[in-house]
Amino acid sequence: MASLQDLIAQLRSDFMSELKEASHSKDFESLKVKYLGKKGPIQALMLELKNCPSQERPHLGKVINDIKEEFVLHCERSLERCKAQELDERLKQEWIDVTLPGRRIRKGALHPITQALNHAIEIFVSMGFSVQLGPDVDTEYNNFGGLNFPPDHPARDMLDTFYLSPELLLRTHTSNVQVHTMRYHKPPIRIIAPGRCFRNEDISARSHVFFHQIEGFYIDRHVTFADLLATMDEFLAKLLGKKVHTRYRPSYFPFVEPGLEVDVRCISCNGDGCRICKHTGWLEVLGAGMVHPNVLRMGHIDPEEYSGFAWGMGIERLTMLLNDIKDIRLFTENDTRFLTQFS
Ligand code: PHE
Asked: What is the dihedral of CA 174, 176, 180, 182, to 10 degrees?
């Protein structure tokens, strides 16, 4: 069987020259498959053994096995060496300089209006009020009619109100929650209602079509005007500090009688007069009043038995006053240079 010896010698020299060419671990893997795999030449030789005379088989078998082991050893050693090299290279490339300063992670924060709302809610909740939410899109009745607005009241006008249809509108104030609340709850009622409001006004530094209010609504037996004054004083002292001075001025809202506006002594100049209070020494912060008997009647509450008060406070204006913010449009522009100042 000189031809087998020749075959093996040829096989070895082919293998060795391919081994020299190989440089990547993938090359060695495929070399292994090519020479030692099921369809490779070594396996073919093994199959050939069957056709050899039986007395030569042990010797030939050993020769084939030896070359097989030789190939395996070559492949494995090269692979090992190659993988170690490749790992070295990868480690060099992926090296991280742990002494570099880290990237700063910027923390998010609540919007200043959300923060102001939360602060006011916290105070009213501590005074025994619970939070009630109402819809931004509501009926003309819930926003106006049920609140004793006469049919021809100018606030209902298309110029002030965004109508979605003859019957549906974007609420112009959070007072719509009064109507909703009376529909589902019997007195005693003691709620606040924070939320979005919309009015069709020219957008300027001082006014916007979109803003926030907190409504308050309190109905029970024997609720008096003195309760209203005390509640407002207590809230404003908690919000602005114990030394705040309040002033109550008569005003008109169709759903309260009497109606009033509440001012606080200017927090910037303490009453001396400055740019912020337009040199009056006072800042207007909310509207309030005793709930009109008509509103109670429409809410199926007997005004002979029950009385109450309501108030509504604009959040943007108050936040602007407290933080010396000069343009209401900043709240809706999402400029992070502005917003991060409140984080
Ligand atoms: N809804 C009124 C407004 O938007 C505020 C208000 C609420 C006044 C409750 C009196 C009572 O101006």
From this structure: 100
* Residues contacting ligand 1 via CB (< 6 Å): 173, 175, 253, 256, 259, 287-289, 310-312
Beta bridge partners of 191: 130, 217
Kind and range of the H or E run holding 216: strand 210-220
Break the chain down into helix, strand, coil percent, rounded to 5: 45, 20, 35
What does the DSSP 8-state code read for residue 163? B
Mode of pairing for the β-strands spanning 130-131 and 189-198: parallel
**Close Cβ partners of 308 (under 8 Å, ≥ 6 residues apart):** 187, 189, 217, 218, 219, 220, 223, 290, 291, 296
C-alpha–C-alpha distance, residues 147 and 242, integer Å: 34
Confidence of residue 252 (pLDDT cuts 50, 70, 90): very high
Residue 193, beta-bridge partner list: 215
Distance 255 CA to ligand 1 centre (A): 8
Phi then psi for residue 312, to 5 deg, are -140, 130
Q: What is the pLDDT of residue 278?
A: 86
CA distance 40 to 49: 15
How far is residue 186's CA from residue 285's CA, in Å, rounded to a whole number?
A: 29
By alpha-carbon position, which residue is closest to atom 2 of ligand 1?
A: 312
Distance 197 CA to ligand 1 centre (A): 12
Token pair for 43:
């396996």
Tokens, residue 281: 């020494």
Sign of the four-CA dihedral 60, 66, 72, 75: negative
Q: What percentage of the chain reaches a pLDDT higher than 90?
A: 56
In the chain, DSSP finds a helix count (H) and a strand count (E) of 11, 9
Q: Which residue from 111, 239, 133 is spatially nearest to 194, judged by alpha carbons?
A: 133
Residues 195 and 212 sit within 8 Å (Cβ to Cβ): yes
| Predicted TM-score (pTM) of this structure | 0.71
